[in-house]
Amino acid sequence: MLKHRGFPGRLPGTDFQFVLRRASKSGATPLVARERYADRKPADRRADAGFMQALWEHFGDQPFERGNLDAGRLSWLFGREVVPAEDPFDNASYEAMLVIDVDHARASFPDAFERGY
Question: How far lies 64's CA from each of 67, 97, 102, in Å?
Answer without folding.
Answer: 9, 5, 14
